[in-house]
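[Automated response] Your request has been received and processed.

Submitted sequence:
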Amino acid sequence: MGVSPVWVRVPPSAPVMAQIKIRNFLAKDLKRIIEIEKKSFAEAWPDSYLEKLSQKYPNDFVVVEVAEKVVGYALGRLKENGVGSIKMLAIDPDYRRQGIGKELIGFLVNRLKENGVKEIFLKLRTSNNVANKFYATLGFEMVKTIEKYFPNGDDAYLMRIRI
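Generated structure:
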């Protein structure tokens, strides 16, 4: 049985041919997700960790395609007591600044809201100024700094959006 697209939308700023399709992760996507992770982050998560997350949260792991090519992924899940979490998000550097990340976050926020989530949290490196600005423009606010959160000792911002 094939997986039908979850959502298809053409952002206003994109050319008509650049259709975005957001769908649930499939096992065949793992290799491409690992490639995007390594292109996106100097300290990428290990391949085994990405595989583990895809197996542990198959219904919460989504990919975004442009012209049938996986160009990004995200993991957004319902935790408990009306709280959601965006665990990870990455867009291939060749496809950034085209509104794809914004569409992907919008999809996750709507999906979590439909499941009764009232607020969503995420963590990002304090040194990641681009991501910090990106999430702030989408309505996320910094809640606190978590010292030495990442394996290399980097600090993280805990950010939240109320929906």
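Summary generated for your ticket: The first strand starts at residue 7 and ends at 9. Strands lie at 7-9, 20-24, 61-66, 69-78, 83-91, 119-125, 141-146, 156-162.
If you did not submit this request, please reply to this message.
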